[in-house]
């Protein structure tokens, strides 16, 4: 870790480590009665569980004590395979607060990949929701470091399985602890949590967040320019707690005093809509594919939201058509967010400047559609293939590099070796930055379509396609071409009952893009492959359409 010169005159403020436990301590003491509502996983219990920050802190402390009693030491990893819910939140605070490392695992990954991650992290305990019992039964024998598998439920729901040795019950662990535990203090640079990247190529790599990085990220992300979370909000994170800490909402929500609503396993449009309405959700966050379900449900049933007013959409580009629907049809403000696992994850958020206040609606919308402004703490730049910095003119596009106190310096166990370039982290994204500092992602480096030495941005083409009324989803990939290297192929899922032909769709692009960006072909499909983090898997599509013959070839 880098060290810095000391001044002969040091500041004289109290020194207090920035720790994850400081958030729950603060939350319970100063917003103790704020509510946490969770959709339960156990099908036979009342649908919603409800308690307060104060209750959560007390149980998180008992959990920390139980881990201590079982000999989980500082720095040791504790895995979770769980939905967004109150027990998962207790693990967020109980594990990290005790000095151990919370290792959230994406249950949508392939079981072999999950076992690989558990072993790579050397998880000591693995906590899991009832839903994932079959998954854990399948991998338990292949995870030798795990001393106990803890089912996140009560005694009544413990299964009679013989396939998991050392199966423990969450509620029994909590009950066995007497609660006489105080949160320990330690260096703020200690590891707090671990999240593996989805690893579309090669094995997943771990981003190891520190207490300091977690608190700074949470602090910064609550700011008005970012998520603008406050005590008057009811926050429903649709983004999973198993991937990049639900964009920090389990921390930023609690330090803001907001009411928290967890959707559990029910992420379909109907279940989400009902929970939004019943609990008075004002603010939410998720990837575009999730909003697709919710918006379609509301549109098909002629429904409006009575309290929902703001949402952050990120993880992949928010199609302008989706932003328009949310703003114009539902009066929901859309904040476009960009980031990645390696960035805790937030790097930029969209929004307007004072000087944009009187711009026409269409002009404002163009600004909001960009991935937005760097959040204080994050710096960014774009460079060409030789690493030379490119101008912030809104046109030049290049590799996007970032730095900041919540961005990885290296991966867990130094997997992948040196990742930084002169102290900057290469994001793998290609972007422009305009003179006002608004960043816009053109593409992921690996998704860019390279045609005759020029780059074609697939996101722009997809955004245009989904603005056609008959198109539900679209993905654009590069397909080999003998003359141009690659040419764009557009894959389209039509809206149920809607009709549109290849020619009509290509005609729709006329005048909207440079001629050489025009997709060479359109293929209509029933669905697109969606990965574990809710994104369209373009690598799979590239594989599948590798041999696709473009017209005229
Ligand atoms: P993975 O997709 O491997 O799970 P992450 O969840 O960390 O990895 O995703 C990070 C990537 O997602 C970014 O590098 C970027 O390519 C893409 N991404 C995230 N937010 C946006 C956005 N708002 N617009 C476009 N791309 C985005």
Automatic annotation (TrEMBL):
Domain of life: Bacteria
Xref: Pfam families: AMP-binding (PF00501), AMP-binding_C (PF13193)
CDD domains in the cross-refs: ttLC_FACS_AlkK_like (cd12119)
UniProt domain AMP-dependent synthetase/ligase: residue ranges: 47-412
Domain AMP-binding enzyme C-terminal: 461-535
InterPro entries per UniProt: AMP-bd_C, AMP-bd_C_sf, AMP-binding_CS, AMP-dep_synth/lig_dom, ANL_N_sf
Single annotated GO MF: ligase activity
UniProt keyword annotation of Lipid metabolism present: yes
Keywords in alphabetical order: Fatty acid metabolism, Ligase, Lipid metabolism
NCBIfam families with a match to the protein in the record: PRK06187.1, PRK07008.1
Family note: Belongs to the ATP-dependent AMP-binding enzyme family.
Name of the featured protein: 3-(Methylthio)propionyl-CoA ligase
């Amino acid at each position: 870790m880098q060290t810095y010169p000391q001044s002969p005159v040091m500041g004289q403020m109290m020194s207090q480590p920035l720790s994850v436990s400081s958030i729950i301590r603060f939350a319970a003491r100063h917003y103790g009665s704020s509510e946490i509502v969770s959709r339960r996983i156990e099908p036979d219990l009342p649908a919603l569980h409800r308690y307060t920050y104060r209750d959560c802190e007390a149980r998180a402390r008992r959990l920390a004590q139980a881990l201590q009693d079982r000999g989980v030491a500082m720095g040791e990893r504790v895995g979770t395979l769980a939905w967004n819910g109150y027990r998962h939140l207790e693990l967020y605070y109980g594990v990290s607060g005790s000095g151990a490392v919370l290792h959230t695992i994406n249950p949508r990954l392939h079981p072999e990949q999950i076992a690989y991650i558990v072993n790579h992290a050397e998880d000591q305990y693995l906590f899991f929701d009832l839903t994932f019992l079959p998954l854990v039964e399948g991998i338990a024998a292949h995870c030798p470091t795990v001393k106990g598998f803890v089912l996140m439920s009560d005694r009544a729901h413990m299964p009679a399985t013989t396939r998991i040795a050392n199966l423990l019950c969450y509620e029994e662990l909590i009950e066995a602890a007497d609660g006489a535990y105080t949160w320990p203090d330690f260096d703020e640079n200690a590891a707090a949590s671990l999240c593996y990247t989805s690893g579309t190529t090669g094995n997943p790599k771990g981003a190891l967040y520190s207490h300091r990085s977690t608190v700074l990220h949470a602090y910064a992300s609550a700011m008005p320019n970012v998520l603008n979370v406050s005590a008057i909000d009811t926050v429903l994170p649709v983004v999973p707690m198993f991937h990049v800490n639900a964009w920090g909402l389990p921390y930023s929500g609690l330090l803001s005093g907001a009411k928290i609503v967890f959707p559990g396993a029910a992420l379909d449009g109907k279940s989400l809509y009902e929970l939004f309405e019943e609990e008075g959700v004002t603010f939410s966050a998720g990837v575009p594919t999730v909003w697709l379900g919710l918006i379609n449900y509301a549109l098909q049933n002629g429904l409006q939201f009575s309290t929902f007013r703001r949402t952050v959409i990120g993880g992949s580009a928010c199609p302008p058509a989706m932003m328009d629907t949310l703003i114009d049809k539902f009066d929901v403000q859309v904040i476009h967010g960009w980031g990645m696992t390696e960035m805790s994850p937030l790097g930029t958020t969209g929004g307007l400047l004072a000087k944009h206040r009187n711009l026409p609606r269409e002009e404002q919308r163009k600004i909001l559609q960009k991935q937005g402004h760097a959040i204080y703490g994050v710096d960014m730049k774009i460079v060409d293939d030789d690493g030379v910095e490119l101008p912030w003119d809104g046109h030049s596009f290049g590799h996007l590099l970032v730095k900041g106190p919540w961005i990885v310096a290296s991966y867990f166990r130094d997997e992948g070796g040196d990742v930084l370039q002169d102290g900057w982290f290469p994001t793998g994204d290609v972007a422009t930055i305009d003179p006002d500092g608004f960043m816009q992602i053109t593409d992921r480096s690996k998704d860019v379509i390279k045609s005759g030495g020029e780059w074609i941005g697939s996101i722009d083409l997809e955004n245009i396609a989904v603005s056609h009324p008959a198109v539900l989803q679209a993905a654009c990939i590069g397909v080999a071409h003998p003359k141009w290297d690659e040419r764009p192929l557009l894959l389209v899922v039509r809206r149920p009952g809607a009709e549109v032909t290849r020619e009509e769709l290509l005609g729709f692009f006329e005048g909207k893009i440079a001629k050489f960006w025009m997709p060479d072909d359109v293929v209509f499909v029933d669905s697109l492959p969606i990965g574990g983090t809710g994104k369209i898997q373009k690598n799979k599509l590239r594989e599948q359409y590798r041999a696709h013959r473009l017209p005229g070839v």
